[in-house]
Amino acid sequence: MGQRNETIEEIINFLSGYLHGKAKALKLSLITFFSRGHLLIEDLPGLGKTTLAIAIAKALGLSFGRIQCTSDLLPTDISGLSIFNKDTGTFEFYQGPVFNNIVLVDEINRATPKTQSALLEAMGEKQATIEEKTYKLARPFFVIATQNPVEQFGTFPLPESQLDRFTMKISVGYASRVSEKEILKFGSKREELYSIQPMMTKDEVIAIQDEIKEKVYLSDKMLDYVLDIVEATRDNKFILAGVSTRGVLAITATAKTKAYFSGRDYVIPEDIKELSEFTIPHRVIFRDEYEHVDKKEVVKSVIEKIPVPV
What we know:
- This protein has helices spanning 2-16, 23-34, 49-59, 75-79, 113-125, 160-163, 177-186, 190-193, 202-215, 220-234, 245-261, 269-279, 295-304; strands spanning 39-42, 64-68, 80-85, 90-95, 102-106, 127-130, 133-136, 142-147, 168-170, 239-241, 285-286.
- It folds into two domains: 2-203, 3-Layer(aba) Sandwich (Rossmann fold); 216-304, Helicase, Ruva Protein, domain 3.
- It is globular, with a radius of gyration of 20 Å.
- A five-stranded parallel β-sheet has the order 2-5-8-1-9, covered by helices on one side.
- It is of the alpha/beta class and 310 residues long.
- Helix 11 (245-261) packs across helix 12 and helix 12 runs antiparallel to helix 13.
- The model has no long low-confidence stretch (mean pLDDT 87).
C-alpha cells in the first residue's frame, strides 16, 4: 500500500505543475476516479476542466475521449454506430468516444434528455447497448462531465436520476493571482501534457482500485456514522428527498479512497466529513420553498449535529 500511495502523491505533485492552482480539484478528481465513480464539474468556461481530464488520462496511461455536447448531439455520437461496408456487404460497428477509459463530456446540460440518457447505462452498468447488442466498456471507466452554472439559455437540466450517478460534484474555481500571472508569463502547458510519460500502467491503476475496495477497513462505527448522516438528510425540514442507497455507497467508497490517499488502511470520521460537501448536496432534493438556500450549508449543519464516533 505504501509504495502505491507514494506514487499517487507523486502524480498529484507532478500534475500540479501543469494545473496552476488546481491541486484540490485534482485530488478530488483522483479520489473519485479510484473510487470507480464519476465526476461532475460545475464551473464557468475557461477554468481548466479539459486540461484536468487530459492530465489524469496521460499520467495514468489511459485512453481519453471527449464529447462536446450541443442541442443536436445524438446518442450515437456518444456510443457509436454501425456503418454499411459495400465491399464486404456487412455492417461494421464504429465505437464512439464512450469506449475510452476517461471520457470528458463537456457542457453536458446542452445535450437533450434523450442524448443524456445514453450516458446513464454507460455510467451505471459500464456497458452500452447499441442496436440490440450489448458491449462492455473499457476498464477502468471514468466520466468527467462539466456544466455551466450561469448560462441557462439552450440548456437541459440534468434529472435527479442522472445527478445521483455522479459520485462527486465539484468546482475548479478561479486560479489564484500568482497562478494566473504565471500563465500570462509562460502560457498554458496543455500541449505539453500530451507528451508526458505515464506514471502508472492500466494494470496498476486497476490493482489500486481493487486494493481500496477490498483492503481499506470500514468499521461498524463508521458505517453507523454514515447511516446517521444519511437518515438525517431523509428527515429534515428543508429536504424533500434525502440521500439514496447509491449515495450511501458513494460516500463509503470515497471515504475509503481518501483514507488510502492518506496512507491508512482504515476510515476515520474526517474522511467522511471532509468529502461530504462534494458527495451529498447534489443528491438531495430540496422543498420548493427552500430552493434558494445554500445546499452545502444545510448539509454541513446536518452533519455537525451528528455525534462523531470515538
